[in-house]
Structures are given as C-alpha cells and as structure tokens.
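Late entry, evening session. Most of the bench is empty. Finally got around to the prediction I had been postponing all week. Sequence below, unchanged from the version circulated by S.P.
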Amino acid sequence: MTTTHKPMTADDLWNRPNDGNRSELVRGELRIMAPAGSEHGATIINLSVPLGQHVKSRRLGVVFGAETGFIISHDPDTVRAPDIAFVSQSRIPSSGIPKKFFSGAPDLAVEVVSPGDTFEEVHEKVADWLAGGTRIVWVVNPKHRTVTVYKPGPQVQVLAEKDQLTGEDVVPGFACGVGEVFV
C-alpha cells in the first residue's frame, strides 16, 4: 500500500501551533531545527546591528531579524528564514510590512553556519535563496572566521578576517570588517 501526503503550504505553516521549535518549509516539507547556540546568536547581532543602523539611517529599506519567514516558491511552497535579511525600500508593499510571511525573497539573505550544519544544508539554502531571487547571500562561518559571498552566477568570493564586507549595489554604502562580525 502506498500512502501519499499533501505537501504543507505556507498558510499551513503560519497557522501551525507554536511548539517553540524553529522551522522552515522546504518544497512542502516541514523542517524542524534546534535552537541556535550562543556564538551563533552573538555573531548575528554583531552583523545585524551595524547593517540595521546603516539601512535605517539612509532609509534604504528594512532589515529583518532571525527567523523571519520569506515565501520564495510555490507549489510546493518553500518558506525559508535567514538569520538576517534585507529588503530594499522599493520592494516594501505600499500597505506596509506584512503581518505574515514576506512574499518573495529578500534582496540580501545572511546565513550564519552553526556547528551542526552540513555543507549540503548550507548549499541548499544558498541555492534556494538565489533561485528565489535573492541578489546576494552572505554565509558567515564562525569556525573559519570567513564570510562567503554568493550572487547569481558562478562567482563565489570568500572573505577573511582582514577583508571588508560590503553591501555592493544591494545595500549601497554598507561596509564592515569581516573580523568585526565574530565573537
């Protein structure tokens, strides 16, 4: 006997009882994740504070905190939640920031690698972000103290502690030392 199950939708995920677990929806499949560790959380703040201040002071758009859901594909639905995200002002709906998941990919998605993350999991997230329309993805790796910059196309740039991380044309004028991101 073969059993099939209907893929979960973004609305199903939104209406799911909050059990305290972090979760994402990947091609209709619910994925539960362990809470982030302390180093992970501190790294997120070390980058999100200067990024948020830069964006807000220049009215460039909105920086979203960890676990904000973005619907990046439909049928089956994928709702990813980066550690940090930025959406440019021109893409914020005229009605304001949605109460539910943001429809569409952020312009910038930041993923901080946790000790338990596999290369395959991180690569899948990067591929999903780029396929969904994200213009730049920063993968922050506390263990190696690097930031890997992904954009559509084959070029990948790995930045070391001595290098400058910039927002390029996605977050104009933003720059910070890679070393400043780490605890």
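Two things to note before I forget:
The helical segments are 10-15, 38-57, 119-132.
The CA atoms of residues 63 and 86 lie 4 Å apart.
Will write this up properly tomorrow.
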